[in-house]
Amino acid sequence: MKIIQLALLIIIPASVFGQADVNQIINKSIQFHDPEGQWQKVALKMIIDEPRTSWPERHSELLLNNQNGNFSLKRNPEGHNLKWLYEDGKSSTFMDQASSETLPADSVSKYRLQPTRTEGYKQFYSFTLGLPMSLKTAGGQIKHEVEQVGFHGQTVYAVTYQLEKPLISSSWVFYFDTNTYQLLGCSLLNDETGEPAEYLKFDKILIETGGLKLPRVKHWFDADDHYLGSDIVVTCEVL
User: Fold this and answer.
1) pLDDT at position 145, please?
2) Which of 42, 151, 212, 239 has the most C-beta neighbours closer than 10 Å?
3) Secretion signal: which residues (predicted)?
């Protein structure tokens, strides 16, 4: 595997680093990506291309309001206009402007229009788009251990994060540039084995808007380095 090249690098034992070092790494990364502390109060409109091996033409339009918690996601598979909406603490879903409550059960199942999925999408996008800032608010625990490992030919700091409410996985490992503290990627660990199941490599090109510096491209791979898909920010607008 390329993700952690243990044979090529000296791993610094976790005991070398203390709790202050972990917090310092996270805080310096947040300072790099959100120097003005805007993430928690920003409202963003984003268009994201999300090609997957099973869905090469997937596009998503997002509204994410971190101040009031509102969220919407729009997609258009097979010519249908789908919408997941979380507003004023309530979840709802629609297909071609019709509420999922009035749609046939097979359509709701096929297009994942169960209202309960809306909060899952909200959690996913709020967490992944807001990294590393969201590590402070996602309801998880940063493990007070740091290693230096190889990640795509670069020595990085590796920090493990345990989510109280699993998001694909309960355990994520985040990789930070040792000089700039830019977030370069992350691994999702298998909850049973603790081994990497999937990982994301972030492009170093950043979207800079509203005082934020967000990764423009994330590429998904499985544990054997097989490409799974990408998340590509096409536009990002502060509302």
Assistant:
1) 81
2) 151
3) 1-20
